Every structure is written in structure tokens, then in C-alpha cells.
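Please describe what follows:
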Amino acid sequence: MRPGSRSRGAHARRRGVASAAAVVVALLLAGCSDAISPPGASDVVVDSPQARAIKAEAGIVDCAPGGGGGGLPDLTLPCLGGGTDVDLASLTGPLVVNLWASNCGPCRREMPVLQDFYEQYGDSVGVLGIDMENYPEAALAFARDTGATYPQLADPGGELVSQDDVRIGIGLPQTILLDAGGDVVHQRAGELDDVAEIVALLAEHAGVDL
């Protein structure tokens, strides 16, 4: 070994550790330690018999397209656990769209908050989840265990990430608000702490008073 090669190797390893640590910190600040996968084609079946059974057991509401003219991307996603595919561009509001995955700790804390909001205000403001992972049965079990019954779409290929209409970051959970006309009026990464926070965001950005 040449003199100094060991110290250079150690220095390189320290740089690598520091870079990895920086990535982890960035992801944590974004809301979750698991990044959204890069977009790509997916052959994941989100309406298998097992997935359908878990969805029925959980009492998750079926997906439904909107009337059209919304500001979300012209992207059709399948309903998690079976049901009607939905073109995101068909959705109008007011609507709370939440991106999540079952391996995300903040998502586990946040989903009951969204369910509470849905139970209190679902007649006035819709709630829609979009599962961003490749494990539909695990995702549905996660929703069942957290008590979530609002509709859920699935994006196992991460196609939403590649759309220009919305800017999706690397961390979960993420929330998108639509106003009554379906325009995207607010996006944020990170956990929603309580129902009052959602109510305040809708009032500020979507002009919705609840």
C-alpha cells in the first residue's frame, strides 16, 4: 500500500457517509424516510381477490370519476382493491388528495386525521388517497388498520411523479388541495397534524369555510 492511500480511502468513506446522511436528513424533512420510486411502467395487480377482500372488510368507499375540467394531470389510475379507474383530470373539488405508502411512519399517524376530517366534513369536501407503492394488499391492510374508509387510488408505477401539472417531491406523505373548480391551489409535503389544520388550509387556499 502506498503511503497516504489508507487516509485517502478513509476520507472517501467519510464523504460517502456524510452524503448518505444528508440524503436521509432531506427525506426526513420531507416527511418520511422512504422516497417515492422513480416513475415507470408497472404490472402490479391492484384488484386481486385478496385485495378486494381486504377492501370490503375495511369498508373503503369505491372510487368515482368527476365531471371533468379539473387541474390535476390527465392520468388515469386504478382504484386500489378493485373498482372504477379514475382520470385525475376529471376530478373537481373542493378535494383533499393525499399521497401515501404503507411503509411511511408519518402516513400512519396522518391517515386517522384524514379519516376524522372525512367523517366530519366529507359531505362538503372530498378526500381521496393515492397509494404510491407496489404492495396493494399491504396498502389496503394499512388503510384497514388505521380505520380509513375514504376512496383510494393506486399509482404503483409512480406515474404521477412524472407529470408537469403537479410537482411531486421525494418524500411522503404529500397533500394536494383542489378548489371548487378543480384547480390545484396548494401542495405540501409532510404530515397533517389534526383536523383543524386541514380546515385552516382549505379556508386559506381554497376559499372553503367549514
